[in-house]
Amino acid sequence: MSARITFAIPFHRGLAYLREAIESVRAQRCAAWQCFVLDDRGEAGGVAELVASFGDARIAYHANPATLGIVGNWNRALDLASTELVTLLHADDRLLPDYCDVVFALAVAYPHAVAVCCDAEIIDAQGRPRFSLADAVKRRLVPSGEPWRIAGESGLRALARGDFVMCPTLAWRRQRLGARRFDPAWKQVQDLDLLARLLLDGEEIAGTRRRAYTYRRHSGSATALQTEDLSRFEEEVALMDRIAARAHELGFRDAARVAERKAIVRLHLAFRAAADLASLRGRAALRKLRFLARGERGRSSK
Question: pLDDT of 102-128, one tens digit each?
């Protein structure tokens, strides 16, 4: 059976998690896949040997000549893929056994979609189920319908309300995506930026509420670290302003207003500050509250 999807695994560190990720690919009910690990040389040795230990010709190893960073590694992974669909499987995540079946069905149902995606189960560092309020809120923002589809101004407005798309679950249609890639200027919001640009370009994205992916939330992740130092919020504010400006140019006034409000960013900041206060982390809470107040002053001055 010829491969229909590539699982590209951008790797930086965490060999134990990487083994789980590869095992989840091999456990797919549908065998129409190929896989490669793209080593960004963040961890000394062992990656090529781990890949070889599976003895599976469908799984390859590639090493970057120099460290590219997260976004650069994601983009090179897209460049190296050769199948119709490509999924950037995060090295610390896992697929559920029916992931291929779910995305193949979506790709057939939405032949013009630039990408299709699914929902995800959330686990902690040890692989145990974990409740995530942020993900629970995002699920409430998913557009009505099953499967769902977003396009045009309504799609951009929905995405600006809150990024409900779980980025690593996306299966990208390479031919439709073309040369468009993640912007290396971003460290945290590169996925939302690309999705917004695609919608602004007239593309559509489709998804399902079915959970076919396992997403690991843990304190050592880049997302967790950039949330704590507030850099993710700085990027989210800057990106929302950029989306609003582009939406105004296209006459998407409703979408522009939603992006300008940044309601989901302010809500997330307030929640994080409250969590810090509950944990007696007063300084951390104060930093977030000051950031939030600065944003409110900026809104009131407009």
Answer: 999 999 999 999 999 999 999 999 999
**Prediction pTM value:** 0.90
CATH number for the domain whose boundaries are 5-218: 3.90.550.10
- Segment 149-173 shows an average pLDDT of 97
Residue 84, judged by CB atoms within 10 A of its CB (0-12, 13-18, 19+), counts as middle
Whether the Cβ atoms of residue 97 and residue 30 lie closer than 8 Å to each other = no
Give the tokens for residue 38: 């793209």
Q: How far apart are CA 92 and CA 181, in angstroms?
A: 22
Nearest C-alpha neighbor of 160 from the set 281, 259, 289: 259
Spell out the domain ranges in the chain: 5-218, 224-300
Q: Are 93 and 213 in contact (CB under 8 A)?
A: yes
d(Cα 203, Cα 188) in Å, to the nearest integer?
A: 22
State residue 247 phi and psi, 5-degree precision.
-65, -40
Scanning 162-230, the segments in alpha helix (DSSP H) are: 174-177, 190-200, 222-228
pLDDT greater than 80 at residue 296: no
Distances (CA, A) of 96 to 84, 190, 202, 210, 291: 21, 25, 31, 11, 38
Rounded CA separation 144/291 (Å): 33
Q: Where are the beta strands (DSSP E) in 89-192?
A: 94-95, 115-123, 148-151, 171-173
**CA 76 to chain CA centroid, nearest Å:** 16
Q: Which residues pair with 224 in a beta bridge?
A: none
Confidence of residue 45 (pLDDT cuts 50, 70, 90): confident
